[in-house]
Structures are given as C-alpha cells and as structure tokens.
Amino acid sequence: MSDLPPRYFLLTFLSGACVPLSPLPSEPPDHTASTLSSSPTPSPTPPTFPSPLPCTSASPSISSVPLPSSPILTSAQAAEYLGSSPKDILHCHKEHAEDDTRVQCLINQRYTGKLREEALKFHRETGGVIGLEKAGTLDGGYRGQISIVPELPEGRYQKHLDWVVGGLAAIDGFFQWLGEPKSYRWKPLGLRFYRSIGKRTPAAYAQDWQVSYNVEGGINSSADAVRETLFHEIFHLNDEEHRNWSKRALEAIFRRIVARCGARTPCLTPYAPGTTMVRGGTYYAFQPGNGVGEYAAELALRYYVEHHQVQRGEPITRPFKCGPEENRLAWGLLVDEFFGVDRIPGCLR
Predict the structure, then answer these.
(1) Residues 146-162 pLDDT 10s
(2) Secondary structure (3-state) at 53
(3) Is the separation of the CB atoms in 208 and 236 below 8 Å?
(4) What is the DSSP string of 239-294?
(5) What pTM does this model have?
(6) Strand ranges, E, within the chain
(7) How far is the C-alpha of 32 from the C-alpha of 36, rounded, in Å?
(8) Are 317 and 240 in contact (CB under 8 A)?
(9) 79: three-class secondary structure by DSSP
(10) Distance in angstroms (rounded) separating the CA atoms of residues 254 and 256
C-alpha cells in the first residue's frame, strides 16, 4: 500500500473535528462525544492534492473570498475517485463529448445495481461523485501506521451511504430554507469511502472538496452524528478556501478566552460552542493543541444547529451569541464572512 497524502481527518474520540494528520494531538484515554442536534432522529492523470494547511495557518488579511460560481467535478477527478480502469476511461471518452456525460458513463461502468442508481442520482442532484479512497497507510503518530482499504458502501455498510447522502441532502435543504449564503459552498463533493484495518480511526477526513469516510469509524454511529460531522468538515473546507479565515479573524478572541480560562472546563463552559468533551481534558473547541480552527468549526456547527432548530420551529433556550461578549463577536464575524444571515432572535441585555 502507498502512503496517502496528509489531509485533515476526524479522530474517533471526537464528534466532528479536523486536525493535521501529522503530527497528531495527544489522545486522551477516553472521551465523551455527543451530537449537538436535538432531533431524534486510476487512468487519467489524477488531481494533485496540495499539502494541507493546518487549521491555524496565517494569511494576510481578513476579507471575504468569493467562491467559484459554478464549481464542477471533472471526469478526470471522477475517474480518480471511482478508481476507473483505463478501459472504462477510454470507452467513456470516446462515447461522450460532454464531460458531465462522461462522469455518468464512468459511474455506469464502475457500479451495478442499487449503488449505481444511487451514485447516478447523487451526481444528477449535487454534481458530486460517490467514489472510493485508495488503499494506503495513514501516519497515526504514536498510534502507529493505520492501514485503510477502499470499501463499497453497500451490504452491511449500506447504512453509511444512506447517512452520508441523507445528511448532505438535509444540509442542502437547510440552505434552501436559510437562503443563498454570502460565501459558502457545500457541494459538489467527492465522497470517498474506505475501511480502516484493525482500528476505528480516522472516522473521516477532508481536503480539496473531498470527504473521505470510514465505514468502520467509531463515531459514525447515527444519522445525526454523521450529518453534523459532515457540516463540521465542510466548514473546514470553506475555512481553507477563505485562506484560513479562522486564524485571521478569530485568533484574538480565542486567545483571550484561553488566557482567561486555560483548560479549566467550568470557566470555558460559557464560551464553548459545542458539547464535545475530551475525557481527561476539556471541551474539544478548547482542547490544548487543537487551535482556533477547531473552535471555528464548532462555532459553525453551532450556527447550523441553532438555525436548524429555528427551521423546525423549536425554541432556542440559550443562543450562543447571547453569552459572553466573545461569543457575540465571534458569531458576528462568522455570519458576516460566510452566511450573511442570522435568524436567531436578538438578545435581551
């Protein structure tokens, strides 16, 4: 197996977070993770993956970065994600002049049965591609090398395809309700399914508008958990697209909170966007070593969760922005940069 390029990934002791593959933050002996949602509920030349910027990489200024108006996944990318054979690539290139129909052809050639139907439907509706991660080895730091293999999301793993596709559809429906965001992208995505050997980590990782998903990931245990993990990961992709906005915009606020509270959980509680706790540590957003990028991703997830409650007509008992002044400032910066709308009721002060 080949060594895979480093990408942001999600550890099994988290409820949705990205960190650089190497080196890894220290892993506590145990964890408590809970979702925020209250609802029950190859071949052409492959695309080149740049080395990922860490969640706290610096950039020169705080300014909105407009995203491409019509991002697309090309047939070359689709062939890479699908692991298409040279024969299938040549066939689809000869038979179809339009790139989009070549993608559909490649899906037809690669899959059969229900998975083919669902992959074609996913591509028609989102422009994305359901594919497979390459076999390889991830550097897990002191955990050692983690071997992964491509795994079709069917049979015993069908539920994971359902959760991922359903979660992305729910996120799409959320933005239809919310209105066109100011500068935020959530599709199309390349989905790459895999299975880890002998371990249940990483649960997911994301870069370059791909989300790789582990059908044996420890926290990939419910539709709600997967949907919120996807939202968290998609925010990281947008943060990177915006030249690591979180570092430039939120670092001062984040440092102010940490200077005041350190890693003391009772002190951090009013400032924590999410409920994910690292056992033996503190809130994941403030776990030492994670940095402002994870605080920002948890903040974005909180934005989604609260607005999802409004979407469902549920009351919000403790709006995050109505907490300490740091919360109000961070919330406003997030809204202004990415979403452009805030439907959470105002605060009584």
Answers:
(1) 999 999 999 999 999 99
(2) coil
(3) no
(4) HHHTTSHHHHHHHHHHHHHHHHHTT-HHHHGGG-SS--B-TTS-BGGG-TTS-HHH
(5) 0.79
(6) 2-3, 8-10, 129-132, 136-139, 145-150, 190-196, 204-207, 210-214
(7) 13
(8) no
(9) helix
(10) 5
